[in-house]
Structure to design on (104 residues):
């Protein structure tokens, strides 16, 4: 099954959604993650990340698509994630999946 996980937070941030993605992959599913640039909990982008890049990443063989967002504490983070997630590229990504999961 092709699974798309949409989450405001994902590796290298430490959240249980990372374990979910790994477990699905270990069970033979094709997993892709759509998320923002890592900035939790300090509200600053992690080293090597910024507003515009990188847009693609990988975690344990799982492809990650990162959309721009305003770091936590600058504006309401969910509003930032919500406005960038439904972009045309993310809708195309959704269209190719058998299953999608959204977490916050």
């Amino acid at each position: 099954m092709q699974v798309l996980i949409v989450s405001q937070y994902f590796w290298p941030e430490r959240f249980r959604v990372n374990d979910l993605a790994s477990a699905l992959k270990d069970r033979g599913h094709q997993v892709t993650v759509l998320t923002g640039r890592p900035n939790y909990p300090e509200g600053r982008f992690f080293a090597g990340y910024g507003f515009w890049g990188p847009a693609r990443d990988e975690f344990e063989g799982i492809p990650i698509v990162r959309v721009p967002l305003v770091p936590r504490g600058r504006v309401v983070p969910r509003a930032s994630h919500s406005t960038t997630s439904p972009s045309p590229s993310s809708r195309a990504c959704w269209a190719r999946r058998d299953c999608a999961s959204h977490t916050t």
Observations:
- Residues 2-103 form one domain.
- The two ends are 23 Å apart (CA to CA).
